[in-house]
Design a protein that fits this description.
This protein has about 700 residues and is an alpha+beta fold. It folds into five domains: about 5-70, Phosphorylase Kinase, domain 1, CATH 3.30.200; about 75-260, Orthogonal Bundle (Transferase(Phosphotransferase), domain 1), CATH 1.10.510; about 270-415, 3-Layer(aba) Sandwich (Rossmann fold); about 415-565, Serine Threonine Protein Phosphatase 5, Tetratricopeptide repeat; about 585-699, Serine Threonine Protein Phosphatase 5, Tetratricopeptide repeat. Helices cover about 50% and strands about 10% of the residues. The protein contains 29 helices and 15 strands. The strands form four sheets. Strands 10, 11, 12, 13, 14 and 15 form a six-stranded mixed beta sheet that branches. A hairpin with a 4-residue loop joins strand 14 (about 365-375) and strand 15. It is globular. The two termini are about 50 Å apart.
């Protein structure tokens, strides 16, 4: 939007582009807002594949931007009728995916990605232009006309309809995945020379986008790699849940495709491909802790079984990629193992993967059995294996995926999962001062798996060193924030103002990685302890939306949501977390205990407390003592009290201060009543030695 002129910056002696909003247009508040939004969006971005904004100016009522002058041709003028060569598609696609990754991680969604908004310079560089429809997903968008409706008052579609996602053209709420769909459309056009969705009228075009499935690009051009067709197809999934989830995932796919795809016409030897693959594998092995997911082996007569197996494999890779601390090998590098088999250790070495997941899919009548196994390829040891028996109906494949894949991913990937346990064990005996920033993040998980002061000290030392090394890393700041929070919640290695430090670190994490769910997890939990409940809830829901497969985040934020007053939502998240990862720690059960206790269902509360099974953790005997006390079971209550005092001898004096960190006064007094009935006298208000935190307000 706006007219673009070539101009000379006389002060700096350089050629620039001026994007001018005409005065009559500037009088339109909506169009002026769009112009200003573009300025904010581009100013927030700094990437070689995104046009650079120099300044925002106004002179004599004329609003204009001074921008980098890009000389070349727009992509729509470079695509021939038969499509671009494979190597050029991969090169341009990689640049676009990297540009979108930067924008999305800053919270910016483009919303008008199309060939006309991509410039290829005279020396071959790729630049993304025109952020006039961009929106900041972190901002309040409730009054954003281009978000709430895909149409203006005149009925004109905002953006370019042929490249819009189904949710955008339907006027639904958008997130970064709308750009993934548009990228898929653009890639299809680069590959075939034609847009995937066409229509003689606007209505026909809209119908095609909403309902039609375009042919695979390999059906149009046999010389294209099957992996390119798969990536484009997944980018253009109608439902955002089943698309490639992030631009970083797309970038990773094309990075691997660039390493393995032939750069010339088919040659009689596979040596160049083998050399490229070997180089990639060697780099992964040197970096360490890479994870490979092999295609599921399918056995059964049902025609849809192979498609289900492919879907499960892709969904697992996508799910694992949501965990920023995991290095997941793109499917294009593992696809050949769908028809090849071999020793897992040899496959791991060939791929440069420390961990390899394999599995099978078997059908018997109307049921399928999905088997998955995670192997440490360095030793050949099986770290985890599970089977899932489910009904199989081709029309209900998505429901099956939504049920099984999150269980596999969470069990393997979240902070309490198999992979983090194995990774932290490999690093526990290393000097924290010698760990890389990435290793420091992995090492920090050991504290949350063990909850003790020595692990806390080692993890904090490693991360405090890591955050001193540029650039800012969202994972490092997020985990450091959580460790500062633990000083407050558990008293581990306490320093002054732990929650203030936790909040500052969390904000650094969000600034460094705005799409990182751990950053928002850290921010939410710090805000909870500052009693800023509106901001807490917004950050918590953002964290949960960014990675719904992280049982650890769902459990921790679930009990904070419950303790802040929304018991229904919080307990639902806690229960969901126990289902996602059956190897979860016992503290996941606490919200359900306290809900039953506050409802005076003391028998139900006791049943939940007995599931916790965390010896040495003071809250376990605390919960048991309160429940047994209310039930009048004096012997069991006395045993729980003795165990509590063995762990926390100071508890009778600090109980009120400790409990006020989490719960409201009414629940606290009922808990203390249970402890007194169990035989433990708690100091009164005037006897409490330390200053009390402000109690959580009753909701």
């Amino acid at each position: 939007m706006g007219e673009v002129y070539r101009a000379t910056d006389t002060k700096l002696g350089r050629e620039v582009a001026l994007k001018v909003l005409p005065p009559d247009v500037a009088r339109d508040p909506e169009r002026l807002a769009r112009f200003q939004r573009e300025a904010r969006a581009v100013a927030a971005l700094n990437h070689p594949h995104i046009i650079t904004l120099f300044s925002v100016e106004e002179a004599d009522g004329i609003h204009f931007l001074t921008m980098e002058l890009v000389e070349g041709l727009r992509l729509d003028r470079l695509i021939p009728a038969s499509g671009l060569p494979v190597e050029r598609i991969v090169e341009i696609a990689s640049a676009l995916a990297e540009a979108l990754t930067t924008a999305h991680e800053k919270g910016i969604v483009h919303r008008d990605l199309k060939p006309a908004n991509v410039m290829v310079t005279n020396d071959g560089r790729v630049k993304v232009l025109d952020f006039g429809l961009a929106k900041d997903v972190h901002a309040d968008t409730s009054n954003d006309a281009t978000l709430t409706s895909a149409y203006t008052q005149a009925g004109v579609v905002m953006g370019t309809p042929a490249y819009m996602s189904p949710e955008q053209i339907s006027g639904r709420a958008l997130d970064h995945r709308t750009d993934i769909f548009s990228l898929g459309v653009l890639l299809h056009e680069m590959a075939t020379g034609r847009r995937p969705f066409e229509g003689a009228s606007s209505a026909e075009l809209v119908s095609a986008i909403l309902r039609e499935s375009p042919p695979l690009v390999t059906d149009v051009r046999e010389d294209l790699p099957a992996d390119l067709a798969r990536i484009i197809r997944r980018c253009m999934e109608k439902d955002p849940r089943y698309r490639v989830q992030t631009a970083r995932d797309v970038s990773n796919e094309f990075r691997d495709l660039a390493r393995t795809a032939s750069r010339t016409a088919p040659a009689p030897t596979s040596a160049p491909r083998a050399v490229a693959a070997a180089d990639a594998s060697s780099a992964r092995a040197k970096e360490g802790f890479w994870v490979a997911v092999l295609p599921l082996q399918c056995r059964g007569a049902e025609p849809g079984l192979e498609a289900l197996g492919e879907g499960i494999t892709e969904e697992i890779i996508t799910g694992l990629s949501r965990f920023s601390y995991l290095r997941v090998i793109a499917r294009s590098s593992t696809a050949k193992y769908s028809s090849e088999s071999g020793d897992i250790r040899a496959i791991g070495k060939e791929l440069g993967a420390r961990y390899v997941m394999e599995g099978s899919l078997r059908q018997a009548g109307s049921k399928v059995r999905i088997a998955a196994q995670l192997v440490d390829a360095s030793s050949g040891a099986s770290l985890w294996a599970e089977t899932y028996d489910r009904p199989f109906r081709p029309e209900a494949v998505f429901e099956l995926l939504d049920d099984v894949v999150p269980r596999i991913v969470s069990t393997v990937a979240d902070t309490q999962g198999i992979l983090p346990h194995s990774m932290t064990e490999a690093l526990r005996n290393r000097d924290p001062e010698q760990l890389s920033p990435y290793e420091a993040v992995l090492r920090s998980f050991a504290h949350f798996q063990r909850l003790n002061a020595p692990e806390h000290a080692a993890a904090r030392a490693a991360l405090e060193r890591a955050v001193q090394q540029p650039p800012d890393r969202g994972d490092c700041w997020a985990m450091l924030s959580m460790l500062y929070r633990e000083e407050y919640t558990h008293g581990f290695n306490l320093r002054p103002d732990p929650i203030g430090r936790a909040l500052a670190a969390a904000r650094r994490a969000v600034d460094a990685a705005p799409s990182n769910h751990l950053a928002y997890h850290a921010l939410a939990s710090a805000l909870f302890f500052r009693r800023e409940f509106v901001a807490f809830r917004a950050a918590a829901e953002r964290a949960l939306a960014l990675n719904p497969m992280d049982g650890f985040t769902a459990a921790y934020l679930g009990f904070q949501i419950a303790y802040a007053g929304d018991w229904e939502r919080g307990c639902a998240l806690a229960e969901q977390s126990t289902r996602l990862n059956p190897n979860h720690p016992g503290w996941y059960w606490f919200p359900l205990f306290f809900r039953a206790y506050r409802q005076r269902d003391y028998r139900g509360a006791l049943d939940v407390a007995l599931k916790v099974n965390m010896p040495g953790f003071w809250r376990t005997p605390f919960a048991l003592a309160a429940a047994y006390g209310q039930l009048g079971e004096r012997d069991a209550a006395g045993n729980a009290v003795r165990e509590l005092l063995a762990i926390r001898p100071d508890f009778p004096v600090v109980a009120r201060e400790e409990l006020r960190k989490w719960w409201d006064d009414e629940l606290i007094e009922r808990l203390i009543e249970g402890l007194r009935k169990a035989g433990l006298e708690i100091a009164g208000e005037q006897e409490t030695a330390s200053a009390k935190p402000k109690p959580i307000s009753q909701k």
